[in-house]
TrEMBL record:
<dbReference type="InterPro" id="IPR001123">
    <property type="entry name" value="LeuE-type"/>
</dbReference>
<keyword id="KW-1003">Cell membrane</keyword>
<keyword id="KW-0472">Membrane</keyword>
<dbReference type="Pfam" id="PF01810">
    <property type="entry name" value="LysE"/>
</dbReference>
<protein>
    <submittedName>
        <fullName>Leucine efflux protein LeuE</fullName>
    </submittedName>
</protein>
<feature type="transmembrane region" description="Helical">
    <location>
        <begin position="48"/>
        <end position="72"/>
    </location>
</feature>
<comment type="similarity">
    <text>Belongs to the Rht family.</text>
</comment>
<keyword id="KW-0812">Transmembrane</keyword>
<feature type="transmembrane region" description="Helical">
    <location>
        <begin position="14"/>
        <end position="36"/>
    </location>
</feature>
<feature type="transmembrane region" description="Helical">
    <location>
        <begin position="143"/>
        <end position="164"/>
    </location>
</feature>
<feature type="transmembrane region" description="Helical">
    <location>
        <begin position="78"/>
        <end position="99"/>
    </location>
</feature>
<keyword id="KW-1133">Transmembrane helix</keyword>
<feature type="transmembrane region" description="Helical">
    <location>
        <begin position="176"/>
        <end position="201"/>
    </location>
</feature>
Length: 236
């Protein structure tokens, strides 16, 4: 059955596709970095909201790719530039917020009263996390926007998927659907590993203020790098 299914769905080389997909998903990007950040700060339940945003965003991009939007972006430099700089601007805005938070955390003076208050509130953090996330950060929406404002992802999906679709197959939409389902399965598995890794580190980060600040600054710097890379990219 494992051999017949790829042929039926018009997929020419499933094993090569899966190997390439695994390598691509393991590359760090703004989506996975944001999910790890939410997991460390808010816990697994809230992190899965961010993961859902990533999955939904990728599903939309895959559908747009199969529908021909990638060709439109390739053909219209102006449209590509608009989407590209919107995505880069949003990533920069997120990075600035992370860097400002890291600076404030680093400069906080560890006095006895502050330490006592931080210790007293430590047990309340878990209960307040879901409320704070829902009212302020909205991780699902933020992860969804990060995914959607990435024109290179649309171009990647179409250029990568098309290599494994039999051109003589009568229903290429089914081929794209099957390839997309594999991509989402890999992505969900990988994000789950990141979420529980981030949760494992959460207790340490809560106790170590400067370590938390350093990691937040590193994440913000990485997001600036993603923004710069996106803004310098081309449709080709």
């Amino acid at each position: 059955m494992a051999v017949i299914l790829p042929i039926v769905l018009g997929i020419t080389d499933l094993s090569t596709y899966l190997a390439g997909l695994a390598l691509i998903i393991l590359l760090p990007g703004p989506n996975s970095l944001y999910v790890v950040s939410v997991a460390a700060r808010r816990g697994p339940r809230t992190a899965y909201r961010a993961a859902a945003g990533v999955v939904c965003g990728d599903a939309v991009l895959m559908a747009l790719s199969a529908g021909g939007v990638a060709s439109l972006l390739n053909a219209s430099p102006v449209l590509f530039a608009v989407v590209k700089f919107a995505g880069a601007g949003y990533l920069t805005w997120l990075a600035v917020g992370m860097l400002r938070g890291a600076r404030a955390l680093w400069r906080r003076r560890p006095g006895s009263a502050g330490a006592a208050m931080e210790s007293a509130h430590a047990s309340m953090e878990s209960a307040d996390a879901a409320k704070g996330s829902a009212e302020g950060e909205r991780p699902y929406r933020r992860a969804l926007i990060i995914s959607l404002l990435n024109p290179k992802a649309i171009l990647f999906f179409i250029s990568f998927f098309v290599q494994f679709v039999d051109p003589d197959y009568a229903h290429p939409a089914l081929s794209f659907l099957a390839l997309g389902a594999w991509a989402q399965l890999f992505s969900i598995t990988y994000l789950s590993v990141l979420i529980f890794s981030g949760t494992y580190l959460a207790a340490t980060l809560r106790r170590r203020r400067r370590l938390r600040a350093g990691l937040s600054a590193a994440a913000g710097t990485a997001f600036l790098g993603f923004a710069a890379k996106l803004s310098l990219s081309s449709a080709g």
